[in-house]
Structures are given as structure tokens and as C-alpha cells.
Design goal:
By secondary structure, the protein is mainly α. It is built from 13 helices and no strands. Helix 1 runs antiparallel to helix 2, helix 4 packs parallel to helix 7 and helix 9 packs parallel to helix 11.
């Protein structure tokens, strides 16, 4: 019968005591004692094996997390630079306050840090915060939300608001941060309002918008109107890709005023 823990210690001690009391032959007595000692060592080995199994289980459960975190740090430093430890901590804290893990926050920060050369380092933290907010509102993961928002920014420069790219770059850090937060919040509010009033989701709307936003921006169209037209096509049953391509063709013709169509439209 298997014995473990306290019972095994008891029987080993009892065996040693009885061997000394009952067996007079020295060789037999030593054999019994050695057998009891081997039994005790076997129990110790089993205990160490159980401890080793627990440690191995702990390593196996934490290693993927540590590896994912390290990969996120390397990716972030790749775009933000090696001297971005403070920015990484700030972005991690922002993500934690929103319920994101550190690696998710840094992955989002790495995506936005790719725009450092365009929008400046001071605006990366604010833009990352807005991107994570965008993901929460639109029901998207951080990477998808950041990609959608970056694409929209690249096509329309909505984060600059009324400022030009040069004016934004020359502004101080606080102005850049406030400008990004203010204008991105307005866009998120517009998108959320349209989502609430239509059957289209923000994920679908932004997918369609990113197909034609650059062409529409050339005509002076607002992001709110782009989103509304995208939602109308989605509600009509159009596939997202087809809807986006159709809108791109329309706005491309409006932007180039093919066959003076703009002059004709102005009459109506």
C-alpha cells in the first residue's frame, strides 16, 4: 500500500526502531535499516518530483507571456527608438487603465510610433491612447483599431484639425497632444453616432472609408459624411470592398471634375 507524507515518516521511524530492538544479527539489522533509508529517500525523491512538476508548470504558463512581452518591447523600440523607455511606461500605464495587457499596449504604441517622422514623437502617446479608445468603442482589437486609424489619418490628416502638417510639427508638445486628442475625439464621436443610428458597425464603416477617404478628402468631404455614406451602402447590402471601390470612383470623378460634372452638380 502506498504511503506518503507523515505516514511514510512514521513507518520509516518505526521500522528503524523495531529493527534495532527485534533483530540481533548485525548484518540483518543493517540490511533492514538500509532498506528503510532507501524507502525514505524514495519518498523524498517523489516529493522533489512533485515540486519540479509544479515549477515546470509555472514556467510553461509564464514563458509565453514573457516572450510576447519581450517581442512587443523589441517592436516598440524598433519604431520609437532605443531611448523610449519613459514613453513605453506611459503607454503601458495608459493601456492598463483601459484593461489592456502591457504587450497589447506596446503593440498599439509601436503601430502609432511608425508615424513619428510625420506627426512627431510628442503626439505618439496621445494618438496611441485614442487608438485604444477607438478599439474599445468599435469592438476591435488594438492592432486592428490602430491600423484603421492610421490609414484614415494618412489619407485625411484628421488629427491635425485646422492646422497644416507644418504648423502641427512646429507646435509645442502640449499643443500637439491636445490637438490630437481633440480632433480624434470628434472623429470617434461622429463614427459612434453613425454606428448608433445605423445597422452598420464601426468596423465595417471604417473598412469602407479606408478604401476612398483620400479621394473624398480631396473634394473637401468631411469624415462624418464619408462615414454616413459608407453606412448607407452597407445597410443596402453592398459588400464592404465593393462599396469602398464604388465610392472611390465617384469621388475621383468629383475631384477631377470629369467632363465638367462639378459645374453641372452645382446647378442642383
Amino acid at each position: 500500500m502506498a504511503r506518503v507524507g507523515g505516514s511514510q515518516v512514521f513507518f520509516d521511524v518505526l521500522g528503524t526502531f523495531n529493527a534495532a530492538r527485534m533483530i540481533q544479527d548485525t548484518k540483518s539489522q543493517m540490511a533492514i535499516v538500509q532498506a528503510v533509508m532507501l524507502d525514505a529517500f524514495e519518498g523524498m525523491a517523489s516529493s522533489f518530483q512533485l515540486i519540479g512538476a509544479q515549477i515546470d508548470s509555472l514556467v510553461q504558463s509564464t514563458f509565453p507571456l514573457a516572450l510576447g512581452m519581450r517581442e512587443a518591447v523589441i517592436e516598440f523600440e524598433k519604431f520609437a527608438g532605443p531611448d523610449s523607455e519613459e514613453m513605453a511606461r506611459n503607454i503601458t500605464d495608459i493601456g492598463s487603465s483601459m484593461g489592456f495587457t502591457a504587450d497589447q499596449a506596446l503593440t498599439a504604441g509601436a503601430r502609432m510610433a511608425q508615424l513619428t517622422a510625420i506627426m512627431g514623437e510628442s503626439a505618439v502617446e496621445a494618438a496611441t491612447e485614442m487608438g485604444m479608445t477607438f478599439g474599445l468603442i468599435g469592438g476591435m482589437d488594438t492592432e486592428q483599431a490602430m491600423t484603421r486609424m492610421i490609414n484614415l489619418q494618412q489619407q485625411t490628416n484628421f488629427m491635425y484639425g485646422e492646422m497644416t502638417k507644418e504648423q502641427f510639427r512646429n507646435a509645442d508638445a502640449m499643443t500637439q497632444r491636445n490637438t490630437v486628442i481633440e480632433n480624434t475625439t470628434k472623429v470617434l464621436d461622429d463614427l459612434n453616432t453613425i454606428e448608433n443610428k445605423s445597422a452598420a458597425t464601426m468596423r465595417q464603416i471604417t473598412f469602407v472609408m479606408n478604401q476612398f477617404a483620400a479621394s473624398a478628402d480631396l473634394t473637401g468631404e468631411s469624415i462624418a459624411d464619408m462615414a454616413a455614406q459608407s453606412a448607407v451602402l452597407i445597410e443596402a447590402g453592398e459588400e464592404q470592398g465593393k462599396a469602398g471601390r464604388a465610392m472611390r470612383m465617384i469621388y475621383a470623378r468629383l475631384g477631377s471634375s470629369t467632363q465638367d460634372n462639378n459645374a453641372v452638380l452645382e446647378q442642383y
